[in-house]
C-alpha cells in the first residue's frame, strides 16, 4: 500500500468511489493498477515529480505522457472514440468535458469529493464549477489558475515614456506611440489561432458583460448576433488596422514560444496571453529578463461605455484531470487515489508555486507571499480570487464543433476576410446547426 501523503485538501475515503464504480459489489477492491495519463505540456516538472513520488510509494503506477496543445485535442478525441484512451486525461472543463460526460466516457468524482468535503471546500468554487456537469464533479484541477493577462516589457514602456494602458482608448494611443518608434505594440501567435479568442472574449465581456457569452453558451437563438459581439469584432479589426499586432502575426506559432520571445527581446511591447506563459515560456525562455524585473503584467483594459466589470477575467480556470469510465476498476482506483491524495498535496502545491503557477486552493496566502515570485503569484491569486466573473476560454466552454467553427471564423476577422456582421451570422448558423 502507498504511504499516506499529507494533502492541502484533506484525506479522501476511496471506498465511496469504489462502491459506486463496482455497482454495490461487496467484493474487496483490487489493488491499484497501472494508470496512463495524457496531458499537455506546461506543468511537466511538477507532474514528473508527482509521478516519481507516487510510483515510489504506491501499489499503482502512474505513466504520464506529454503532448503539445493543438495535436493533443484531436489525438484524445480519436483515441477515446476508438476505445484506446488513457486512464486519466487532461481537459479544460466546460463544453469539451461535457461532451465526454454525455457520451458516458468519464467517471464521476462526486462520491470521492462527498467523502471528503474539505477537498471540495478548499478548491476555488469558480474553478471546480468548470468540471461540474449537471451537478456532478467530473474532474479535479491539477495546475494553477490561468487568467489571461497582458504581459509587457517594462524597458520598452520606459523608453516610450508611456504608462501601461488601463482603458481601450489608452491602448490605442499606446499603439500609435510604439508604431512611431518601430516597435510592434502586441505580439500574438496567430498561426495557432486560439490566441485570437482572448481578444474576442475580453472585449465582449467589457462591452456587454458576462451575460452575453452566458446566452451563447446556453444556446439561445440570436445570442451570437448580440451587438456586443459585433462591436468586439469591429474593435479587433480597428486594432489590426491601427497596426496593433506584429507584422506577419498570422504566421507566428504560439506553441513554440515565438510570441513571448518577441516581448522579452524588445521587438514587441505587449502580449495578451494566459498565466501559463509565465512559467511555461517567459521564465524558461528568458530567466534573466523575468528575474531581473523586466517583465510586467496587468489586467485587460476597461472599455468606456461598456457594462462589464473591469475585474472580470477570462482564461482557463485551471486544467483538469478526469478519469475514463472505460478503464478497469483497478486502474480507476489507482487514478482516483493519485488525484485525491497526491495532486494538490502540500508538496505538489509548493512545487506548483515554485514553478510560477498559482494553485486554485484557498488559504495559501502565506505560501504565495513566501514564493520565489511573490509579486507575480499574488497578482494572479488576487486576480482570480477577486474576479466578479471568471469565464472559461470560449473554445473550451463550447462544444468541440462550435469551438472549431469559432476558431475558423475568428481567424477571418483578424485577417479581415470577413466583416464583424458576417462573423456573428456565421457563428449563429454554426450554433443552430450544432
UniProtKB/TrEMBL annotation:
Point out the signal peptide segment.
Answer: 1-22
Note the Pfam families from the entry.
Answer: SBP_bac_1 (PF01547)
Q: Which SUPFAM superfamilies match?
A: Periplasmic binding protein-like II
In its keyword annotation, does this UniProt entry include Signal?
yes
Key words of the record: Signal
Q: Which InterPro entries does the UniProt record give?
A: Bact_solute-bd_prot1, SBP
> What protein name does the entry list?
Raffinose/stachyose/melibiose transport system substrate-binding protein
Amino acid at each position: 500500500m502507498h504511504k499516506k501523503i499529507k494533502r492541502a485538501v484533506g484525506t479522501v475515503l476511496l471506498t465511496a468511489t469504489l462502491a459506486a464504480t463496482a455497482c454495490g459489489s461487496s467484493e474487496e477492491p483490487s489493488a491499484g493498477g497501472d494508470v496512463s495519463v495524457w496531458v499537455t505540456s506546461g506543468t511537466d516538472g511538477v507532474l514528473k515529480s508527482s509521478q516519481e513520488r507516487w510510483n515510489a510509494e504506491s501499489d499503482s503506477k502512474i505513466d504520464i505522457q506529454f503532448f503539445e496543445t493543438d495535436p493533443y485535442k484531436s489525438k484524445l478525441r480519436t483515441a477515446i472514440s476508438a476505445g484506446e484512451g488513457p486512464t486519466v486525461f487532461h481537459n479544460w472543463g466546460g463544453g469539451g468535458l461535457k461532451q465526454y460526460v454525455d457520451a458516458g466516457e468519464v467517471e464521476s468524482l462526486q462520491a470521492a469529493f462527498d467523502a471528503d468535503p474539505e477537498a471540495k471546500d478548499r478548491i476555488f468554487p469558480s474553478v471546480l464549477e468548470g468540471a461540474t456537469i449537471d451537478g456532478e464533479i467530473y474532474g479535479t484541477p491539477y495546475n494553477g489558475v490561468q487568467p489571461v493577462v497582458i504581459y509587457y516589457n517594462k524597458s520598452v514602456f520606459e523608453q516610450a515614456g508611456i504608462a501601461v494602458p488601463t482603458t481601450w482608448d489608452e491602448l490605442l494611443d499606446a499603439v500609435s506611440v510604439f508604431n512611431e518608434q518601430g516597435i510592434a505594440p502586441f505580439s500574438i501567435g496567430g498561426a495557432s489561432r486560439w490566441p485570437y479568442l482572448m481578444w474576442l472574449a475580453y472585449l465582449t465581456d467589457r462591452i456587454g458583460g458576462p451575460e452575453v457569452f452566458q446566452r451563447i453558451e446556453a444556446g439561445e437563438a440570436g445570442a451570437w448576433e448580440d451587438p456586443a459581439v459585433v462591436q468586439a469584432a469591429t474593435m479587433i479589426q480597428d486594432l489590426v488596422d491601427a497596426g496593433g499586432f506584429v507584422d506577419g502575426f498570422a504566421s507566428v506559432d504560439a506553441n513554440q514560444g515565438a510570441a513571448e520571445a518577441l516581448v522579452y527581446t524588445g521587438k514587441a511591447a505587449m502580449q495578451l496571453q494566459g498565466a501559463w506563459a509565465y512559467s511555461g515560456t517567459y521564465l524558461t525562455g528568458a530567466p534573466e529578463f523575468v528575474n531581473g524585473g523586466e517583465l510586467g503584467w496587468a489586467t485587460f483594459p476597461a472599455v468606456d461605455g461598456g457594462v462589464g466589470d473591469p475585474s472580470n477575467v477570462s482564461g482557463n480556470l485551471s486544467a483538469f484531470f478526469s478519469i475514463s469510465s472505460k478503464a478497469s476498476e483497478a486502474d480507476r482506483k489507482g487514478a482516483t487515489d493519485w488525484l485525491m491524495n497526491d495532486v494538490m498535496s502540500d508538496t505538489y502545491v509548493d512545487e506548483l508555486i515554485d514553478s510560477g503557477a498559482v494553485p486554485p486552493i484557498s488559504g495559501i496566502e502565506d505560501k504565495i507571499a513566501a514564493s520565489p515570485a511573490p509579486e507575480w503569484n499574488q497578482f494572479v491569486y488576487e486576480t482570480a480570487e477577486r474576479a466578479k466573473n471568471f469565464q472559461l476560454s470560449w473554445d473550451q466552454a463550447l462544444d468541440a464543433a462550435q469551438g472549431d467553427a469559432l476558431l475558423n471564423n475568428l481567424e477571418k476577422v483578424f485577417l479581415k476576410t470577413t466583416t464583424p456582421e458576417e462573423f456573428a451570422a456565421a457563428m449563429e448558423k454554426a450554433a443552430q446547426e450544432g
